[in-house]
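Lab meeting, item 3. Inverse folding demo.
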């Protein structure tokens, strides 16, 4: 095991500087005057003042109309030599405000209950709960000066400018400098990919502003969902219009509209919900509209939406919904002409009884399959004659995803416009979206067309050796031991790999899960996929769809139901 990495006391400052310098180097032409001044003011500070500002910017202070509030005497950072002096210099640079004039209500959360009781102009009961205590102080118009007692308060300024830097660097406002820490600690190694200006996600100031507006709306989401239909529709009206070619923003807006519309359904406002769904281009917008129509008795519209989906499904999950819901609705309303019952997969199934054990049921099943296969071959050949032993691996979703990730490694990390914001991404920004395959369609189609056993093996092994340990969203390194990889590449036909890869790629968000638990390699050759179901467990819809796919492509498979032997 590698020795633990010890970070420098001010590692956060190094990371902060790297972030802002990265953004300025690539986005300066798109930055506002305020953002440029923020950067210049910060760079002009001494190291201690920079350390204090980044510390405060990274902490969750008490929210106020002046900015996040902190009590100076409550701050302690060993790496900052003179904290009051650093705070004074930040004040002079316009990045901190000293003792902002605020309503008493905004000061109260900074102080302990004991301090609040001591500051009351009249004695108050110690038994009061915090909310009641604060209310009592406000009603009695307590003097803020008594509460503050000359103690310096600090309000962080210009934090809104750093929001723009974070957006440009991470592509969102959820992430923070922790990503750098993970890199510094060696927890992640990232692939290298070009980050040229022409490939970066933001190409105009309008894009940046619309993304910032989206996040401003997102901050209001919880309160709007709790308030009611009018507030939900008002929030929907504040959403940015979107930018042509900015698929990331369109996905985010769709996701937010879907959330708002779904809450409108729950609040029994179906017409308003349907209106919002009509502005969404991604699933499950059409599904929800079909359900609303049928629930309101508009069967024709509901069935028409199902037919529309079937003519041009966005993905397989949407197609499956339209087949099932459309048929059930038509059957109930006696409009069956033109509708057929969806086919139900009937995979080969075996039931076995095994003694209960603490191990995972999948591993127990793997041991059983190895033993049973060996017995069967002994009966057939009456001797081993030195043949290799049967092997069964617990792979679940790791094998086929992992081999795909190794095979398309270079395409996955290719400099597609808008795919990469910064050097610390495990995957392109659109990896788990419906845009992933279309954006790289030509490259994927060519790679699959040239797939044969030899090319697949050579490319996979090359990336396996060269890229070991580098983060890839499809590759779980520890789940791909060399013996498993050797057998899989040797035994599984190229036609099966091609079909599997094609299905994974066209809808990677939904298809990368639900794959069988085990892969069995009999001693005499070939392979078989085995889905294990323990007592009381049932096949999920994504598993059933995979099993139906295996049947269509003649990929060997079965379902193994395990029952516990009775004592």
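The presenter then showed the designed sequence:
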């Amino acid at each position: 095991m590698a020795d633990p990495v010890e970070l420098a006391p001010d590692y956060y400052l190094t990371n902060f500087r790297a972030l802002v310098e990265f953004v300025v180097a690539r986005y300066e032409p798109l930055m506002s005057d305020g953002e440029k001044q923020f950067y210049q003011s910060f760079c002009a500070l001494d190291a201690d003042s920079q350390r204090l500002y980044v510390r405060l910017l990274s902490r969750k202070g008490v929210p106020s109309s002046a900015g996040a509030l902190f009590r100076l005497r409550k701050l302690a950072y060993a790496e900052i030599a003179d904290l009051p002096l650093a705070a004074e210099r930040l004040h002079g640079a316009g990045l901190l405000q000293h003792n902002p004039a605020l309503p008493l209500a905004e000061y109260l959360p900074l102080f302990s209950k004991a301090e609040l009781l001591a500051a009351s102009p009249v004695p108050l009961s110690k038994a009061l709960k915090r909310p009641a205590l604060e209310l009592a102080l406000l009603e009695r118009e307590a003097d803020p000066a008594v509460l503050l007692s000359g103690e310096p308060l600090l309000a962080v300024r210009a934090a809104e400018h750093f929001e723009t830097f974070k957006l440009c660097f991470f592509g969102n406002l959820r992430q923070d400098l922790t990503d750098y820490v993970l890199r510094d600690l060696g927890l992640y190694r990232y692939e290298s990919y070009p980050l040229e200006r022409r490939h970066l996600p933001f190409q105009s100031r309008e894009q940046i502003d619309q993304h910032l507006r989206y996040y401003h709306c997102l901050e209001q989401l919880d309160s709007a969902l709790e308030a009611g239909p009018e507030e939900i529709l008002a929030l929907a009206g504040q959403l940015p219009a979107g930018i042509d070619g900015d698929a990331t923003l369109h996905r985010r807006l769709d996701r937010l509209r879907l959330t708002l519309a779904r809450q409108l359904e729950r609040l029994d406002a179906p017409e308003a919900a349907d209106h919002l769904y009509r502005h969404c281009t991604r699933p499950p917008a059409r599904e929800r509209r079909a359900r609303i129509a049928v629930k309101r008795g508009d069967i024709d519209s509901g069935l028409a939406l199902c037919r529309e989906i079937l003519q041009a499904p966005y993905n397989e999950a949407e197609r499956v919904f339209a087949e099932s819901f459309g048929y059930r609705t038509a059957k109930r309303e006696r409009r069956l002409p033109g509708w057929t019952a969806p086919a139900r997969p009937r995979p080969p199934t075996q039931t076995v009884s095994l003694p209960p054990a603490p191990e995972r049921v999948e591993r127990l099943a793997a041991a059983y399959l190895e033993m049973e296969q060996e017995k069967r071959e002994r009966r057939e050949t009456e001797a081993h004659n030195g043949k290799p032993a049967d092997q069964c691996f617990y792979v679940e979703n790791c094998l086929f995803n992992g081999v795909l990730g190794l095979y398309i490694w270079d395409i996955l990390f290719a400099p597609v416009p808008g795919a990469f914001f910064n050097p610390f991404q495990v995957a392109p920004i659109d990896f788990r979206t419906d845009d992933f395959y279309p954006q790289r369609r030509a490259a994927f189609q060519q790679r699959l067309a040239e797939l044969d056993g030899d090319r697949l093996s050579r490319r996979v092994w090359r990336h396996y050796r060269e890229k070991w340990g580098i983060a890839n969203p499809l590759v779980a390194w520890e789940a791909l031991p060399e013996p498993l990889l050797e057998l899989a590449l040797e035994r599984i036909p190229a036609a099966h790999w091609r079909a599997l890869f094609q299905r994974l790629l066209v809808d990677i968000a939904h298809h990368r899960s639900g794959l069988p638990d085990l892969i069995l390699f009999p001693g005499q050759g070939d392979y078989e996929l085995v889905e294990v179901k323990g007592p009381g467990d049932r096949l999920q819809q994504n598993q059933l769809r995979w099993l139906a796919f295996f049947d269509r492509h003649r990929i060997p498979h079965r379902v193994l139901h395990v029952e516990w032997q009775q004592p």
